[in-house]
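Work Package 4 report. The design task specified in the project plan requires that, given a folded chain encoded as structure tokens, an amino acid be chosen for each position. We show below one input record used in the internal validation round.
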């Protein structure tokens, strides 16, 4: 089943939604690579992408929170840090054991589940706050 961003995940702020779409698109290409038996090759660039683009996306969201005086800023930032810590843990695992198939599956489920849960609740709350301010 393809991993797709859909309207139920919209937070209503174009900049944020576009970045979420990109994250989902990339997770989907990892899944597609898996289906073609190329998951192992795709997982290393995927982790690098998550570390880089994830951090960039979080910075963008945090900047919006700071400039708008978002009251949940600290809590939200902590959740972002937790995600990046998880990605670093995945990276360490990859370095230690190599790209096994169970690992590729673990990356996929961990990241997609985290993103879906975080966007549906935490980012949506932020979206509502920002929309009310605009
Ligand atoms: Fe986000
Ligand atoms: Fe967020």
């Amino acid at each position: 089943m393809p991993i797709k961003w859909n309207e139920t995940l919209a937070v209503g702020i174009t900049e944020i939604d576009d970045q979420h779409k990109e994250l989902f698109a990339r997770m989907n290409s990892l899944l597609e690579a898996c289906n073609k038996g190329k998951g192992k090759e795709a997982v290393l660039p995927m982790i690098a992408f998550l570390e880089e683009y994830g951090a960039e996306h979080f910075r963008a969201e945090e900047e919006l929170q700071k400039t708008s005086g978002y009251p949940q800023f600290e809590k939200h930032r902590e959740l972002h840090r937790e995600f990046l810590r998880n990605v670093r843990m995945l990276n360490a695992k990859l370095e230690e054991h190599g790209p096994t198939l169970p690992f590729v599956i673990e990356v996929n489920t961990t990241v997609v589940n985290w993103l879906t849960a975080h966007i549906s609740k935490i980012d949506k709350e932020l979206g509502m706050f920002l929309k009310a301010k605009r």
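Residues 2 and 101 are 18 Å apart (CA to CA). Validation will be extended to a larger panel in the next phase.
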